[in-house]
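Pinned message: reference record for Pantetheinase-like
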Amino acid sequence: MAMASSSLQHAFIFILLGSIRTLALDKYIAAVFEHAVILPESTVKPVSPEEALKLMNQNIDILEDAIQKAAKQGAHIIVTPEDAIYGFFFTRETIYPYLEDIPDPQVNWIPCTDPE
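Predicted structure (tokens):
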């Protein structure tokens, strides 16, 4: 999960810095990216957390490449599908391997400095 978190952190920083830079502009160039999400063979059978992470990382790699290409072409705002990392058509049980536990706010834990 550290690889996905690291990629997501880099993407967030990239988006944040790009957003700050675009605030000063009068006009914006937007890019919209549609993506055929890489899914497991069956979304009615649960996959292992490792398989879910592998699939999400493949989708993140595709998104990262598309975002970098759009930025190089001058896009200030890049829109991707909301389910582009994990996909869709899951049941309550089959989505669990794609999710992360979020600790209670009362727990004094910072996952970035203490991932375990």
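Pinned by admin. Summary line: The first strand starts at residue 30 and ends at 32.
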